[in-house]
Predict the structure.
Amino acid sequence: QVQLVESGGGLVQPGGSLRLSCAASSSVTFSNYYMNWVRRAPGKGLEWVSGINGGGRDTAYADSVKGRFTISRDNARNTNLQMISLKPEDTAVYYCNAVMNYENYWGQGTQVTVSS
């Protein structure tokens, strides 16, 4: 079992920045898990945003956030999402997701609202 807790969401003006963090429970080998950030905008389905492999060297991004978002992970079991140049269409609940083979875990989500 993996427990994931997201933090860092909030209200920000267009063009602003936020940094989301996802803390994984200490009872797992964190590096075994591929970590994703996934979001759900109001009235829409889930959208994959970004992913990072266990070693932290291979990353991937959705076209909608490429060049504005940066994913990273550290030895303290945190997976971070640095977001800059935020747009109103980035408004969503952001979820942290851990995947290993057939295991798939989700956090409770953190709200990001981009509005003036």
Q: What stands out?
A: The two ends are 40 Å apart (CA to CA). The first strand starts at residue 4 and ends at 7.
